[in-house]
TrEMBL record:
Domain of life: Bacteria
Name listed for the protein in its UniProt record: Adenine DNA glycosylase
PANTHER family for this protein: ADENINE DNA GLYCOSYLASE
Cofactors demanded by this protein: [4Fe-4S] cluster
Gene name of the encoded protein: mutY
Cofactor remark from the record: Binds 1 [4Fe-4S] cluster.
InterPro entries (alphabetical): A/G_AdeGlyc_MutY (IPR005760), DNA_glycosylase (IPR011257), Endonuclease-III-like_CS2 (IPR004036), HhH-GPD_domain (IPR003265), HhH_base_excis_C (IPR023170), HhH_motif (IPR000445), MIG/MutY (IPR044298), MutY_C (IPR029119)
SMART domains in UniProt: ENDO3c (SM00478)
EC number: 3.2.2.31
Length: 356
DNA sequence: CATACGTGGCT
DNA sequence: TAGCCAAGTAT
């Protein structure tokens, strides 16, 4: 490769033409050139799922969502609980709540078609600067600059920027904007992200095979692996709680729908105590012969570790819970539970079988 | 600008 | 193992 002073979008696009990763929502570069445009609904859905989430984790969810709800109008007409259940396990559940709000807004305010307009996209629930730019570029080929974690890392290395994130964000955004081409904006956006995901990786980047190795300042100075700098994170405290798993004589399980805000908002879960650093006060959802499991459920969230004591009970058909409702076995899918609640269920299963 | 908000995989 | 990391958004 010829030595260059500044990186060129054309070099990256040439690499992308040969190395684009295959993903169910992606139109490969050859097809894109031939005139096949991506479905904005699928672009939007994939981008929301990909927020802070790996391609490997998203793929199965994307396939299930698009099989069940092929278009934005189908999703807009779905029951809230069905969408939350289908999202269970993917995390950041505000995304699912905003996904539904967004689908309904697209139907109600945009005639069921995603607007090909960056500012209009930005006004929709769950669509921020990154996602608005990604949909603009990938779905509509508008020359918007996409700035995600990959782009930040690639720009920090290309220009050997040592300012720690998030303070470096404006500088990195400006660097990314300066490189964005007018043509093939969608392919270019996906190319930078593929580069970050496969070559310009957080640890041990593969600089030797990078299409931008020649103009990369960090590679020249040997600082690539330590960029981007980040401000240190705070330690996670430990919170304690109690979860209550009640099984009725017909096998129905006592579950409740959590409020539509905050942690696990809108998701199905076991009734329980508050989660706090202090030992929790008991909060059984009904009076029964509760039995503590020998093992607690452990789970780590973004900002704290959780240790849940699990209490189980078998109750009669006359049981009248103060919270939640009994869900018959036919209506209960463990996969509808967020992971922490599924851990509680998995710990309880054996004991419930013995008791029942 | 800082914080809340999940999860699974990798080192 | 404990920590870091992933195609961020809302407040």
């Amino acid at each position: 490769m010829r030595e260059t002073e500044t990186p060129r979008a054309a070099d990256l696009l040439e690499w992308y033409d040969r190395n684009a990763r295959i993903m169910p929502w992606r139109v490969p570069p050859a097809a894109r050139r031939a005139g096949t445009a991506p479905d904005p609904y699928r672009v939007w859905l994939s981008e929301v799922m990909l927020q802070q989430t790996t391609v490997a984790a998203v793929t199965a969810y994307f396939n299930r969502f698009t099989a069940r709800w092929p278009g934005v109008a189908d999703l807009a007409a779905a029951e809230d609980g069905d969408v939350m259940g289908e999202w269970a396990g993917l995390g950041y559940y505000a995304r699912a709540r905003n996904l539904l709000k967004c689908a309904r807004a697209v139907v109600a305010e945009h005639g069921g078609t995603f607007p090909a307009d960056h500012d209009a996209l930005l006004k929709l629930p769950g669509i921020g600067p990154y996602t608005a730019a990604a949909i603009s570029a990938i779905a509509f080929d508008l020359p918007r600059t996409v700035v995600d974690g990959n782009v930040e890392r690639v720009m920090a290395r290309l220009h050997d920027i040592h300012t720690p994130l998030p303070a470096a964000k404006p500088e990195l955004t400006a660097a990314a904007a300066a490189l964005t081409p007018e043509r093939r904006a969608g392919d270019y956006a996906q190319a930078v992200m593929d580069l970050g995901a496969t070559i310009c990786t957080p640890r041990t980047p593969a600089c030797g095979i990078c299409p931008w190795r020649a103009p990369c300042a960090a590679r020249a100075r040997g600082t690539a692996a330590e960029l981007p700098k980040k401000t240190p994170k705070k330690a996670k405290p430990i919170r304690l709680g109690i979860a209550y798993v009640a099984q009725r004589a017909d096998g129905a399980l006592l579950l409740e729908r959590r409020e539509d805000r905050g942690l696990l908002g809108g998701m199905l879960g076991w009734p329980g105590s508050e989660w706090a650093e202090e030992a929790p006060a008991p909060a059984p959802p009904l009076d029964a012969d509760w039995q503590a499991l020998p093992e607690e459920a452990r789970h780590t969230f973004t900002h704290f570790h959780l240790r849940l004591m699990v209490q189980v009970a078998q109750v009669g058909m006359e049981a009248a819970p103060r919270r939640g409702a009994f869900l018959p076995p036919a209506d209960f899918r463990p996969s509808d539970l967020p992971t922490v609640m599924r851990k509680v269920y998995d710990l309880s299963r054996g004991v419930l079988r013995e008791m029942g």
